[in-house]
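W.,

You were right to be curious about this one. When I first looked at the sequence I had no strong expectations either way, so I just let the prediction run and decided to look at it fresh. Below is the sequence, 173 residues in total, followed by the output.
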Amino acid sequence: MKYQFRYSDGRGTVSTSTTEYLTVSDTSVQLRLTQRVVDDLLVIEKTVSTGTGPRGRTRNTVTSSPPMVGDPASRVCGGRTWTIPSVTMSTTASPGAASQVRTDPGTGRVIAVRRAVTVPAGTVETVHYEKTFSGPHGRVVLEFWRSVTDGVSVKYTYRAAGVVATQVLTAIR
């Protein structure tokens, strides 16, 4: 399955991206996400991506400590709220790069379940929710419309300090 997106912001930036789920081979990227569902919320422990680039094989690992509270799971109800604690994100990448960052704390809120949203790829029934973070750089609001059918985000907005950016699904192949 191939998903195509268009991203735009208030500064005139427009870009497109494609996410394609492939079988694993020497020339494709495999993404492994270690997560669990706790109280109808996805909790992400580790993300490992591997692939082949211009310099050979690559492997990137991102670990959250404690595990990061993410998005609502499939059985979530409208009006649900949750707390998103600050976590330390540790990244190691081949060849040899490493970094660590502390995330800002936040909250999440389900706005609606089974809300239809129309994007260039069509009309999709979604879970509509937002996550709000506050920290040293100010307030950041992330708003998602995630497909009920397959879990992919079909629309996403980012709002912070006078910046508004939007990504929409433009095609599924």
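Here's what jumped out at me. Residues 40 and 76 are 6 Å apart (CA to CA). And, maybe more interesting for your project: DSSP finds no helices and 13 strands in the chain.

Coffee later to discuss?

I.
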